[in-house]
Amino acid sequence: MHDVARPVSNRPKQAPPKRRRKPVVFAIALLITICAFVFGTKFLQIGKMMSMPRTMPPTTVTSVLVKEEDWAPRLTAVGSVSAVQGATVSTELAGVVSAINFENGAEAKKGEVLMKLDASQEEALLRSAEADAQLAKTDLERARDLAIKKVVSGAEFDSAQSKFTRMNAVVDQMRSNIAKKSIIAPFDGQLGIRQVNVGQMINAGQQVVALTALNPLYVDFTLPEQYLSKLTKGLEVTVHADAFPGRQFKGELTAINSMVDPVTRNVPLQATLENPDHALHPGMFAKVEVALSQTKKTIVIPGSAVSYAPYGDSVFVIEKKKDSKTGHELQELRQQFVRIGEARGDFVAVTQGLKPGETVVSTGVFKLRNGMGVTVNNDLAPKPELNPKPPDT
Fold first, then answer.
1. 78, 209, 334, 380: which has the fewest C-beta neighbours closer than 10 Å?
2. Are β-strands 236-240 and 249-256 bridged in parallel, bridged antiparallel, or unpaired?
3. Which residues does residue 321 pair with via DSSP β-bridges, in sequence order?
4. Mean of the pLDDT values across residues 311-328?
5. pLDDT tens digit sequence for 78-109
6. Backbone φ/ψ region at 248: left (φ over 0), alpha (ψ -120 to 50), beta
């Protein structure tokens, strides 16, 4: 029998599966080795960094020296502004308004005619009275000549003289009534808003317009009776008004009441203020400070140096220390709790917690903490003032 030839295939023979897996396994092993090396190196670096002590770079702050100054004690009170001269201009006679010679809110000078009432009837009566007075004068002169010649009796001469006097009195009365028809400013001041109109019939006593002298002004307030022995005329008074925040009005104590209020046991006081720009007006609420003549030593720091908190106010004292490793001098912060007294301008009084000569941080205390290293740079430090004057006031 003949052998049958088998067909020969042209496809390449496949490698065994084990030979294909070897490169893949090698690549994976190499990748794992690289990752383990990278992560291990980073882990060692991070561990080394964490084991090293962390030091924050010094923070730049501004500083101020704690000072002791002579402050005069101040008594505070609330009061009300009142006018030295103020009145509501009214009419004495009834009549019809014929002319108004002022604008609302304008300035008025003493003797200036503000308003006129119709006085045509009084003027007519004045002419009649003047004619009667002239006739009485002629009769008196004639009676005097006849009395000298003994032609008339003394009684007739006395009657003529009485008539003459009566007629002149009538003339004066009519002129006075006409003058009262013109409403005149009694003093220099600022006018308010008029309450009448031209052509209006008004009665006697009708209010026309308010007139107030705005410079100077009074401030009326009270203080407890225990301060009476410390109060004298001429003490400096400072007034603050809510309408002008940040502004101070200076004056002096000019009147102390002779009686103490038996109900409140307060003594009424009055101060006089200069008000050249007419900023204050009568009736305004005022916060009053009276500076006593005695002074006392007070520790003073800027108000911006205090960190206010519900659990207590504190400041950061700058202390100099030496680095134990390098020997260099460092500046560190120490948080010191303090007790704050009164405030004046940009300063506050410290009653407990600080000593004169210490150095404290003056600004930016809210971002600091105890033990922090700092460097001091006062080139741009603000300058606190006892009587600050903001540019917008």
1. 380
2. antiparallel
3. 330
4. 82
5. 999 999 998 889 999 899 999 999 899 899 99
6. beta
Q: Write out pLDDT tens, residues 8-65.
A: 445 555 555 555 566 777 777 777 888 877 777 777 777 666 665 555 677 888 889 9
Tens digits of residue pLDDT in 109-136: 999 999 999 988 888 888 998 898 899 8
Q: Which two tokens stand for residue 270?
A: 């009055």
Place of tokens 């001429």: 234
Q: What angle do CA 311, 313, 317 make, to 5 degrees?
A: 130
